[in-house]
Design a protein that fits this description.
The chain has one domain: Ribosomal Protein S5, domain 2, CATH 3.30.230. It contains 2 helices and 2 strands, in the order βαβα. Strands 1-2 form a two-stranded parallel sheet. Helix 1 links the parallel strand 1 and strand 2. Helix 1 crosses helix 2.
């Protein structure tokens, strides 16, 4: 069933992740970073307003980050963009 704009249903937010070979030449490393960012976004999804289309550009320093750091950075970015509330 396709959801139309007229039936009052909210369109879920979407996340795109771009990560170039400048971050790491190894696909394994780039894919790990993508998986961690997707998991972090899934954790924050209940706080994200519906209908957003977001693109995250990964910088080379991301190879040194843990999942907790990704989650913290993603939360900060979403707050700055006013996609999630500061109170949550």
């Amino acid at each position: 069933m396709q959801v139309g704009a007229g039936d009052g249903a909210k369109i879920p937010s979407q996340l795109g992740i771009t990560i170039s070979q400048k971050v790491s030449k190894r696909a394994v490393v780039r894919n790990r970073i993508k998986r961690q960012l997707k998991a972090g976004f899934r954790d924050l999804l209940p706080q994200v307003a519906a209908g957003w289309k977001l693109v995250v550009v990964v910088k080379p320093s991301a190879t040194q980050c843990s999942y907790e750091q990704f989650l913290q950075e993603l939360k900060q970015l979403l707050r700055r963009a006013k996609v999630i509330d500061h109170e949550r």
